[in-house]
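Backbone-to-sequence.
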């Protein structure tokens, strides 16, 4: 994290130096428009537009990957529910669920797993 902050600071100093050394005006022609601006300002605006474009593409890619991952998890959950197989919370081992299982049986199963019903709170000396 510190390395990134130092790198950003060095980049900011370089950009400031560039802006001071290239302050002369240039004429910009775009379609029917024409305007004068500082050369450094034109370069910095172009840099900003490029950064926003790349950042937007990165966000779209990241959102697409999250949606794919979410759909994969849902697909696996639906498949395991359809086959009657679930994974236990602590070990991740598959466990079969019988349709006639009672709530009492599921409580008994939780007693065997750490963090289940019969775990007593730890005593704190004070």
């Amino acid at each position: 994290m510190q390395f990134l902050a130092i790198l950003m600071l060095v980049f900011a100093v370089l950009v400031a130096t560039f802006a001071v050394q290239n302050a002369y005006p240039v004429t910009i022609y775009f379609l029917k428009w024409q305007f004068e601006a500082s050369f450094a300002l034109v370069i910095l605006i172009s840099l900003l537009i490029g950064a926003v474009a790349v950042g937007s593409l990165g966000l779209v890619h990241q959102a697409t990957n999250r949606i794919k991952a979410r759909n994969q998890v849902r697909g696996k959950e639906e498949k395991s529910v359809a086959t009657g197989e679930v994974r236990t919370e602590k070990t991740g081992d598959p466990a079969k669920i019988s349709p006639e299982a009672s709530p009492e049986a599921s409580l008994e199963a939780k007693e065997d797993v750490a963090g289940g019903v019969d775990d007593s709170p730890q005593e704190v000396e004070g």
